[in-house]
Automatic annotation (TrEMBL):
<comment type="pathway">
    <text>Protein modification; peptidyl-diphthamide biosynthesis.</text>
</comment>
<keyword id="KW-0520">NAD</keyword>
<keyword id="KW-1133">Transmembrane helix</keyword>
<keyword id="KW-0285">Flavoprotein</keyword>
<keyword id="KW-1000">Mitochondrion outer membrane</keyword>
<dbReference type="Pfam" id="PF00970">
    <property type="entry name" value="FAD_binding_6"/>
</dbReference>
<comment type="similarity">
    <text>Belongs to the flavoprotein pyridine nucleotide cytochrome reductase family.</text>
</comment>
<feature type="binding site">
    <location>
        <position position="118"/>
    </location>
    <ligand>
        <name>FAD</name>
    </ligand>
</feature>
<protein>
    <recommendedName>
        <fullName>NADH-cytochrome b5 reductase</fullName>
        <ecNumber>1.6.2.2</ecNumber>
    </recommendedName>
</protein>
<feature type="binding site">
    <location>
        <position position="135"/>
    </location>
    <ligand>
        <name>FAD</name>
    </ligand>
</feature>
<keyword id="KW-0812">Transmembrane</keyword>
<keyword id="KW-0472">Membrane</keyword>
<feature type="binding site">
    <location>
        <position position="142"/>
    </location>
    <ligand>
        <name>FAD</name>
    </ligand>
</feature>
<keyword id="KW-0496">Mitochondrion</keyword>
<feature type="binding site">
    <location>
        <position position="184"/>
    </location>
    <ligand>
        <name>FAD</name>
    </ligand>
</feature>
<feature type="binding site">
    <location>
        <position position="116"/>
    </location>
    <ligand>
        <name>FAD</name>
    </ligand>
</feature>
<dbReference type="InterPro" id="IPR039261">
    <property type="entry name" value="FNR_nucleotide-bd"/>
</dbReference>
């Protein structure tokens, strides 16, 4: 592919049939000719851009069709949790998951089809793969099955799913209360906010766990809190070790009141964790004056339960 670059000096002069003519009447004709040639050149350049760089990739995920993705890598991050990296068909593919949404994973276990929902911690800025942080529970069907996967074996996925889609400027402040692996949708949102200098949303995270060893991705959370003034994290442990300086016991209304934004039209409280914890946090939030959440949360809700 080549371009013919044409330089034209527009004046009231023209060359016709090899003769240099000077006439003010020719100026509109020459100007029109320049416009036509420039339009043609711009169109050719745009075609070249498509030729060299290609069109933007369509998302790999489908909400209607189950698709399979191979395990690329498994990274142990705690005594009972790991980061699982799954490959997309091409190195420059995007999963196609809006920030705050999740996927369904389906597996046949003991002759039964079982589905569970998980939120990738990666985003569409990560090309060619997506990451899942999963805790293996002794009685967890899907989590135990995924833990047993070998590199190259596949999972079956459909999505995206969910009512929450984060966009910059959604609210002035977010209060997050997470328990255990309930950190995954929170981390996805936190990462998106922290890597966007134009997003001034304030984020306050309360992260509850049983023991210190159960705190997932603590190093990353601490790094983000140290380097982004709009993000803070407060840890609470049910069984703290000697010398622990963070919170102890269950998350109380007083803790929520201290670390989360006060009720207002331009804030949201996000909840994710074990059902008993979410039930307690829902009651605490209502007692503190936040809007009562519905059983199935919508994006417009002040208190949103993942």
């Amino acid at each position: 592919m080549s371009f013919n670059i044409i330089t034209i000096t527009v004046s009231s002069a023209a060359v016709l049939g090899g003769f240099y003519l000077y006439s003010p009447d020719l100026f509109p004709i020459i100007a029109a000719l320049v416009s036509v040639l420039w339009t043609a050149f711009a169109a050719k350049a745009f075609t070249a851009k498509l030729f060299f760089f290609g069109k933007s990739k369509a998302p790999v995920l489908s909400p209607e069709q189950w698709k399979q993705f191979p395990l690329l890598e498994k990274i142990k991050i705690s005594h009972n949790s790991a980061l699982y990296r799954f490959g997309l068909p091409n190195p420059d593919d995007v999963l196609g998951l809006p920030i705050g949404q999740h996927i369904s994973i389906q597996a046949e276990i003991d002759g039964k089809l079982i589905q569970r929902s998980y939120t990738p911690t990666s985003s569409d800025d990560d090309l060619g793969h997506f990451d899942l942080v999963i805790k293996t529970y002794p009685n967890g069907n899907i989590s135990k099955w995924i833990d047993g996967l070998k590199v190259g074996q596949t999972i079956t996925v459909k999505g995206p799913k969910g009512q929450f889609k984060y966009k910059p400027g959604l609210v002035r402040a977010l209060g997050m209360i997470a328990g255990g692996t309930g950190i995954t949708p929170m981390l996805q949102i936190i990462r998106a906010i922290c890597k966007n200098p134009a997003d001034k949303t304030r984020v306050s995270l309360i992260f509850a766990n049983v023991t210190y060893e159960d705190i997932l991705l603590k190093d990353e959370l601490d790094y983000l809190a140290d380097h982004h003034k709009n993000f803070t994290v407060y840890y609470s442990l049910d069984k703290p070790h000697e010398g622990w300086t963070g919170g102890s016991g269950f998350v109380t209304p007083e803790v929520i009141q201290k670390y989360c934004p006060s009720p207002a039209d331009d804030i949201k409280i996000l909840l994710c964790g074990p059902p008993p914890m979410i039930n307690s946090m829902t009651k605490h939030c209502e007692a503190l004056g936040y809007d009562k959440p519905r059983s199935i949360s919508k994006l417009v809700d002040q208190v949103f339960k993942f």
